[in-house]
Design a protein that fits this description.
Layout (H helix, E strand, L loop, with lengths): L4 H17 L16 H44 L1 H20 L13 H6 L5 H31 L7 H25 L2 H25 L17 H24 L1 H28 L12 E2 L6 E3 L3 E7 L4 H10 L11 E3 L9 H10 L9 H10 L2 H8 L3 E5 L2 H4 L13 E2 L4 E2 L1 H16 L5 H4 L10 E2 L12 H11 L2 E4 L3 E7 L21 H22 L6 E5 L21 E4 L9 E3 L8 H8 L21 E7 L8 E7 L9 E8 L4
Length: about 675
Amino acid sequence: MSRRPSKRWFWVILTAVASIGFMPTPAQAAYIDPATTSYLIQVVSGLVITLSVAIGVFFRKAQLFFMTLGARLSALRIRLFTASGRQAWKAQKAREARLAAAAPKVAKGATRTMSKGDFLWKDTRKWWVRLGLAAAVSFSLSMVYILFTVLDLYASNAPQLPFSIADLLPVTLLLFFGLGAGITLVLFLIRGRLMDVAVSGVLWLALAGWLQTHFLNPDFGQFMGQVVRWQDYAKPTVVNLAVWALLLGLVIAARLISRKLWTALIIVVSVVLLAGSSVSLISTYTSSSTSLPKADSGYLSYDNAFSLSSTHNEITFLVDTFDSTLVDQILEQDPHFFDPLTGFTLFNQNMSRYSQTDPAVPAMLTGQDYLYTRPYEDYKTQAWLDATGMRSLKAAGYSINIFSDKYNAYGHDTGIGGLVDNFVGTATVTDTTLMTRGMLQLAWFVAVPMVAKPTFWMDTTEFLGVNRAPGGAPEPYQIYDAYFYAKLKEHGITIRGSQPQFNYIHFQGSHGVFTLGADGTPAPDGSDVITQTKGVFHIIYDYLDQMKHLGIYDNATIVIAGDHGFHEPVNVRTLEHPILAGLFAKPAGDSSMPLVQSAAPTSLYNYLPTMLQQAGLDPAPGVSFFDVPLVSTEPRTYYWLRPAYRDEKPFGDHYEVVGDARDWANWRLVERFRLITS
């Protein structure tokens, strides 16, 4: 029993306080955005629990110390002031002298030797002490690399992830306890200094991973398929490695200085990681600001993607991130590339409504703008309930089919149920293996050092196929262009009847990650934005050729549009140049004329009026692409959205453009507003 408990726990408390003394401002790195306050919750709760334990142990030790002191004072009184006590003391001294004389003599200058096996393996600690140390660091490691990081990332990105917390939580808990118990068993079976080395390694990985997650990551921005230029992170990588090496040195130094200090370090770190992370997760999932998906059961299927009407078809090919400059670059390489688009008009100064897919797609389909004054999921649900244009098409007898995913296209099932014909109201089956592999890869990308991040980098196609149709139900639609083309070649375009049809087909298009070849098939060695865009048009051309062969091309209204132009880098704070979206459109009627260009000041605000007009319906309050005058004083609206970056809050810039949108002088900043995204 220690005779100086206060000194021991002084080091425990000092280490706990020092653990936050060197903490820098946290940096964000996640699939979209991590919880920015979770580290504070963890540190505070960890320190509170650590100090509570330290204070409790201190007073308990103090009580034992004074009880022992009383017993010793009583023994001293008996030894000094009673005859029996003096005799017992003399007998004890004589016995100690005889034992010392009988001990083997050691030559002067010689030392007692210990075998290598005893040096490495011998352990005088109780089994429950070794088990406690092993469990503390093992479950801390499992907390950092599995439970906390996976669940925290899910809470931050739930609307974008195609599965529910009910799917993810059981397997995450199973992995957490399985990994923690497995490492605990391995460490417990090791003894002595070998165990100390192994425990130190696990402690280092847990502590370094936690610090990496909350403080050491640079801001990679949103994972929107962009290829990370790792060469730009050479300096941060070196600094990051130095920090990891320093942490390893601190853990080793603590063990070399004192096993007691090392044990105290294990206690402090484990309390902060386990208790702090647990409190943080509870706070996150009980917070009113955490927006988890509602328990819907429906999905958008492939139904009617390749079967069209014999009378009138309105078909939209939404080419994601199709910037107008791509049209110019492709024409420079091949002036005849777009020649197959007979009957089309290229609108060369078309503007999108937003700078990103959400909310560009639901705003395009419903005509309802999102001004970031309420949660995005609520907006999407209400936008479809108020989608008078689509409901007019439905009332006019059109079959409406939206080929996109739920996050990009709609909110609650009630918004599109009964309106969209390829909507299936039954639940999909989650591929647990694919879901788990993707979430672990995402979590480990966040937690590992910079030098290892390229191994765990992931693109936006990582979760494709995670939702599977239940037995006998139609296949869910995936935004995966090469797969769409394979199905197009397998099934071909067929005529399903005379009912007029509206099809909206969402392609990944010019959006990274770039994996599509110019022939519309996967490119094993990778691709680039120009090649991938050509590949998407190759798919579109095949689709249109089959329509021509069936004789339904001329009477079809066809739009090929980008939902937005290129994204700006995440660290750009102000927009300094025009961003336009590519647009080709063909009205129903004679389609033999070659492609022509128009400088009419169009916008995606004209999209829904175009589809209504082409169906013979009233396009008011807007006008179609084909009716926009070449000269107009009507302002066009554009919302440039800038996501959160480091310690800056997300915001949006509202622009109005009058005249030629290619001229930056015609762009006027109306207001800057905060984004309310949850």
